[in-house]
Amino acid sequence: MIHVEGVAAKSLPNAALRxxxxxxxxxxxxxxxxxxxxxxxxxxxxxxxxxxxxLAGQIKPSRGKVAILGYAAGSAxxxxxxxxxxxxxxxxxxxxxxxIAALEGQLxxxxxxxxxxxxxxxxxxxxQRPVRTLTPEERRSVALAIAVTSSAKxxxxxxxxxxxxxxxAGRVAEAVRAxxxxxAERCVLVATASQRDAKxxxxxxxxxVNERLVPATYGAGTEHFVLVVVVSDPMRLAAAVATEGGAxxxxxxxxxxxxxxxxxxxxxxxxxxxxxxxxxxxxxxxSSGAGAYVRDGRMAEKTMGEAARKxxxxxxxxxxxxxxxxxxxxxxxxxPGGHR
Length: 340
Prior knowledge:
The protein is an alpha+beta fold. The protein has helices spanning 45-55, 76-81, 97-108, 114-119, 136-148, 166-169, 172-180, 195-200, 234-244, 264-278, 305-310, 324-334; strands spanning 2-11, 22-31, 34-38, 63-68, 71-72, 82-85, 154-158, 187-191, 204-209, 212-215, 225-231, 249-252, 256-261, 282-287, 293-295, 298-299. The protein folds into 2 domains: 2-215, P-loop containing nucleotide triphosphate hydrolases (Rossmann fold); 225-314, no CATH class. The protein contains 12 helices and 16 strands. The strands form 3 sheets. A 6-stranded mixed sheet has the order 6-7-8-3-9-10, with helices on both faces. Strands 12-13-11-14-15-16 form a 6-stranded antiparallel sheet, with helices on one face. The protein has a 4-stranded antiparallel sheet with strand order 2-1-4-5. The radius of gyration is 25 Å and the shape is elongated. The protein starts with a strand and ends in a 6-residue tail after the last helix.
């Protein structure tokens, strides 16, 4: 659903908003449905925020490709699919939250009754007040309530528990979870410095390390595997795998796809399905976590065996016929004229 390939971008310092500048030079990742968080693991929060702005189309990258549901970031269709709540929101000063919720519903379509949307975060008492009379915390809470109840397909949130009212803080986790579970094509991406907040949202937590998303933490006793797939078209395989949403993190290089996962078997099967559907030639699959290796149809561990056998490109050549008459038939088929 979210595809970022070789992106370079920067944001300038803003003293008024107390923001440092940020820079990324070669970020690549693919995220599927569900709730994801960029948090911890050495992540620079300013870079995480920069990536949200790039995805929302507010900052144009100087290099690379960004796509939301297959549409270029910043395009009309991508913008229609996204609900983005920055840390510093801007709402029409003379409109009421009720009117804003109604207008957003008309423009995007499919949203619930406006007052019910505000009630999701306990904000109905602000419904008829002009935005100019609201505090920054109340304004941001209103923006959050409208976003999490919208018909958008992709929800981008910068620190959703920060600078909001007490009522909203107690309800935002449930609202975000409900959004993520609201349809087959729903994706949430959160930038937060708090892994506790990320877990409260039910998010898969990723750290941004050396411009790559990697799983930030794992529970006690949880195994972590990195499945490396050398394939004819890594970008296409990464996009297909990310669409299924089963991997924790998917990244692509010029020659291979890396899948960080807790379930090696599921990841290998997902690769097999995607490769067959996309007619991709898989050269090899290897896992650093299990030490398994698959090549030319042979493997050291059984964890990826079933998946490997499904891949035509990894299948072993057919055995030589043992029956002499069968060998003659093969020779005749190869040389119908009987020339020696």
